[in-house]
Every structure is written in structure tokens, then in C-alpha cells.
Design brief:
Radius of gyration: 18 Å
Mean pLDDT: 91
Order of helices and strands: HHHEEHHH
Number of helices: 6
Largest sheet: 2 strands, antiparallel
Shape: elongated
Number of strands: 2
Length: 144
Amino acid sequence: MKISTKGRYALSFITELALDGGDKCIPLKNIAQRHHISEKYLEQIAASLNKAKLIKSVRGSQGGYKLVKSPCEYTVGEILRSTEKTLAPVSCLEYEKNDCPYSNDCISLFVWEEIYKAVNDVVNAITVQDIIDRGKHQNKQQDV
């Protein structure tokens, strides 16, 4: 399993909104410039996040994007799943029901299931607030 740029940028996008936004809207252009991401590409990511109801789009001169909930309520897992097709390490685990005709005889299936479970446990346990807090802690360490 490899996280695409869409997933990585989606996480950066949400984190940036959490750091800068609060209830204030942040223009897409500002985030694109800060992270050196194409605005067009970031628009696609914003559309996925908006569709998943993770962000809100506001039109107009004071428009932009903002979070719909508190940073402590966003998990890395839900953000990645909004842009990634799957977090499964193998294709037979991409869907709730494993339709692989060889699954009953696959002696290594448990390995892939354990990896998948471990990945989900990690990404579901880390929140955007955790990322922000860790970043602040790292910055303090660098200042010392």
C-alpha cells in the first residue's frame, strides 16, 4: 500500500485549515502556494473532501474553505479514505467481503489482514489535533 499525493495533500490541506482557519475561510490559493501544490490539483482534492463532508466550501469575496468540525474529531483514516481508493495492502481486502476464489486456501491471507488491521488502527487513532500538537512540540525542540 502506498499513499498517493492526493492522500498526502488532503491531510496537509485539512491540517492547514485547522492551523489557520478556525471559523475563518481560507482561500485555496493560499494553501496551494504555501505547499507548492497546483491549484487545479488542490481543487480536485477539495472536491473529494467536500463530497465526504470533511470541509465546507464558501463562495464570495470572503470565501474559501473551512473545517466542519474540530481538529480533534478528524482522523487521518477518514481523510485518507476520502481520497484514496483503499488502504488495503492487497486487492482481495479492498472490499468488505473478500470475493477472492482462493481466500479459503491462501495461507498468507492472515498476514495481509494483520497488516491491514494495523494500518487502520494507526490511521484511525491519530487525529489532526495530534498532528498539530506534535508539530508544535517538534518546533519547540528545534528552538532549544
